[in-house]
Structure to design on (556 residues):
């Protein structure tokens, strides 16, 4: 696992730029990245961070600290208004509009509210993500059962989301997020709607996926999980990256 | 293969979308039918008047009334022959025919007979004096004015009449009908466009959560947009097919009516029907595509 091997996180220094291009296996790179919304609100400023392939990272911070903007930036829902951001080898400012779908296929994302299509079965929900990107029937028949197997839902392929528990629904969402074999899985408060036991099951699943080589970035308020896991922690406060620490806890410990 | 899958995907989604909000889709289709039926009516009427115009233009181009009959009064047979020879030598002249007063009278009586009336000449039978004339047909209506000018210079000729006045009048009528018809159809087309824009807007809203997921999983813009554009085109296509069906059904029954109104076959059979069908199909598909394109542009911003 690359957690210990990764370079120290970039701080606000001149070397950040050089290091960003030097690390070939960087999945996410931000150099002095900032986002100021059209209404003048500064949501992120001068963020420097490098996340190498295979990392497992928690993103923490109070509501309004910039977590949501951080994630929107990664999937290019907003563009950086300053600095530079690369995701899966693509410079977001240089990315042409028609290449955005290609970027999004390299990123899997799950949310607190699962966002499944209620009229579609478990199988169809996952297959939909392949269908809408032009995948053929044989690919769908091959990949969907494989992914549902991975998340432990092969017994529920024909169920509707409403017939599943919250944890099972989140597993469907995770299977869908992995459908294009993304470089990174972003989980935005994935356990926010789940009870503690189910939350741990989801975390176990994310760790398993991470062990298979997918980089995981998980935004969370769940102190218990972050403290127990002892993984890299990025902490945002008022739009600034105030902490980037390996094997860390939810709160600063020094 | 990939493209075929894209087409298949979009077509299936368009079909599902059409029936998901069936009331709205069918109402829109009905307005398309209304517009296309109006368009068919206009097309048939204009075609009828145009063929009437052609008919008039192809008939006698120039009539020259003569000073008298040959061997009576001032006109001798050689003079008539010379005049007819001169007329034949003019550019654009196709045929030159001599019409005697008796023939003219016979024609007049025939016209009355066709209307079911009898020409009443009174006791003497001489209350109407018809001139002898020569009738010139022209190869192209544009020659009729120069021919009329050349003939009016001849001393044998009393008066020249051309069909220009009738032609001008008919052209005027055609223009008015065409303008009024097109304005009416344009207004209906605006309504149709509005209906389609609205139908597709509702379809877009109905699929809002699907569209969001499509964006997140990296569906390209064409996968997101084309189903909606096809749904609009589907409204236009169904409307056009229904309108074509209606025209085809009434086609044979209305032929005698049209013949009565325009006094000639409006357009002959299958080819006219094929042209009209192609027009209806093109307009239906076009308005569907434009309407849904506007809607997708306005309500599906990236």
């Amino acid at each position: 696992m690359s957690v210990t091997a990764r370079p120290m996180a970039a701080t606000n220094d001149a070397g950040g730029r050089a290091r960003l291009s030097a690390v070939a296996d960087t999945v996410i790179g931000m150099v002095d990245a900032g986002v100021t919304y059209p209404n003048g609100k500064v949501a992120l400023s001068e963020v420097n961070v490098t996340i190498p392939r295979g990392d497992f990272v928690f993103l923490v911070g109070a509501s309004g600290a910039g977590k949501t903007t951080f994630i929107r930036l990664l999937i290019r829902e907003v563009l950086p208004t300053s600095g530079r951001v690369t995701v899966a080898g693509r410079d977001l400012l240089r990315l042409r509009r028609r290449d955005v779908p290609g970027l999004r296929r390299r990123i899997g994302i799950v949310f607190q509210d699962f966002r499944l299509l209620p009229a579609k079965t478990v199988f169809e929900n996952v297959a939909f993500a392949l269908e809408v990107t032009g995948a053929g029937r044989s690919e769908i028949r091959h990949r969907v059962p494989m992914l549902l197997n991975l998340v432990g839902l092969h017994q529920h392929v024909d169920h509707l989301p409403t017939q599943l528990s919250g944890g099972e629904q989140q597993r469907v969402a995770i299977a869908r997020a992995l459908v294009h074999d993304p470089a990174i899985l972003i989980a935005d408060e994935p356990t926010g709607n789940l009870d503690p036991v189910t939350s741990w099951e989801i975390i176990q699943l994310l760790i398993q996926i991470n062990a298979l080589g997918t980089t995981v970035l998980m935004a969370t308020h769940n102190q218990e999980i972050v403290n127990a896991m002892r993984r890299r922690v990025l902490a945002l406060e008022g739009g600034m990256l105030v902490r980037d620490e390996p094997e860390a806890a939810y709160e600063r410990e020094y | 293969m990939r493209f075929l899958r894209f087409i298949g995907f979009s077509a299936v989604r368009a079909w599902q979308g059409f029936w998901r909000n069936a009331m709205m889709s069918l109402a829109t289709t009905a307005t398309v039918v209304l517009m296309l039926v109006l368009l068919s009516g206009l097309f048939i009427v204009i075609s009828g008047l145009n063929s009437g115009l052609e008919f008039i233009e192809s008939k006698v181009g120039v009539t020259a009334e003569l000073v008298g009959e040959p061997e009576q009064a001032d006109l001798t047979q050689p003079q008539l022959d010379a005049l007819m020879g001169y007329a034949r030598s003019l550019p654009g002249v196709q045929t030159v025919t001599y019409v005697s007063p008796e023939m003219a009278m016979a024609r007049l009586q025939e016209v009355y007979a066709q209307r079911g009336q009898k020409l009443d000449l009174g006791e003497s039978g001489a209350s109407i004096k018809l001139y002898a004339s020569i009738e010139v047909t022209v190869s192209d209506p544009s020659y009729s004015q120069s021919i009329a000018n050349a003939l009016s210079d001849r001393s044998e000729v009393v008066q020249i009449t051309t069909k220009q006045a009738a032609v001008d009048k008919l052209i005027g009528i055609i223009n008015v009908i065409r303008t009024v018809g097109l304005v009416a159809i344009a207004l209906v087309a605006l309504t149709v466009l509005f209906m389609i824009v609205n139908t597709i807007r509702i379809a877009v809203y109905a699929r809002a959560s699907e569209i969001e997921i499509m964006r997140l999983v990296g569906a390209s813009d064409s996968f997101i947009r084309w189903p909606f554009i096809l749904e609009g085109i589907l409204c236009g296509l169904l409307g056009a097919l229904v309108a074509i069906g209606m025209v085809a059904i009434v086609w044979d029954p209305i032929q005698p009516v049209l013949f009565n109104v325009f006094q000639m076959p409006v357009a002959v059979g299958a080819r006219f029907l094929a042209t009209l069908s192609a027009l209806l199909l093109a307009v239906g598909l076009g308005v569907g595509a434009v309407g849904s394109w506007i809607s997708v542009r306005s309500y599906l911003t990236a």
